[in-house]
């Protein structure tokens, strides 16, 4: 009597992981981030070689100051993209939250109420997108596009003109400089951005919610079979994205000293570009917050480099877009071979 053949029920991915050491798998996951960090360092070296006085503490401090709002936006976008979604509403939310807060301040509301209201306005719109995506099963692209039009329209309803912000508490966020030494400085807005990064790193790497975010992006069906709360996690992810957009609206309003309904046009694309440059895969399940931070730094450094060259502002946008495309393609080429 012949024995029944043994059927290998182990998935191919599990068999691959058995053959490959754990440290190699970790290195493969971090390779996009390492690639971005190498690109960032190369840009600093090239800028120092070409221009001189480029890699300085003042320039790096200014880089963080000028892109603090984009760092926060990229953090929120990273959550969404990790689940395989997209959020096109964040740029319009920045405009609405900023002009909404400026209008409240101008009418005499105290900053202690206005600042939370600015952040909460983004959370509400993010929750709306999450409900549309999860409960009504509308594609994230369409749901966030509708929210983008809604937020932009609300900004127009508040005011078509720029509203100046003169409240001392909001101005303090941007104009206060904490000197660290050696020319280094940070502002409260930069501190807010960096705290957002650190908190998100902890959430995604060391909490059950963070593991659920990665699991949903990797394979939603498997996440459901594992008993993960897919619906709550996805809605929470869009709430986080909207909240980050509200915080970015506050930072940008403090940065410009005003609220304006036309603020943030195309800002959502800047955030997506920074996240992708930072190594997060658009299909979800792979990426790191630190990579998104490096992506924002690369993006900001490109703009600074073009300014140093002295190219016309319209050509600056064209060159920035071309260089971003080159970086993304280069990163994908470098990462694809080790993955195979």
From TrEMBL:
It comes from Subtercola frigoramans. It comes from the Bacteria. InterPro entries: ABC_transp_permease. It is found in: Cell membrane. This is Simple sugar transport system permease protein. The lineage of its organism: Bacteria, Bacillati, Actinomycetota, Actinomycetes, Micrococcales. The keyword Transport applies. The chain crosses the membrane at residues 29-56, 68-96, 108-133, 140-163, 183-204, 235-255, 314-335. Keywords: Cell membrane, Membrane, Sugar transport, Transmembrane, Transmembrane helix, Transport. It is a multi-pass membrane protein. The keyword Nucleus does not apply.
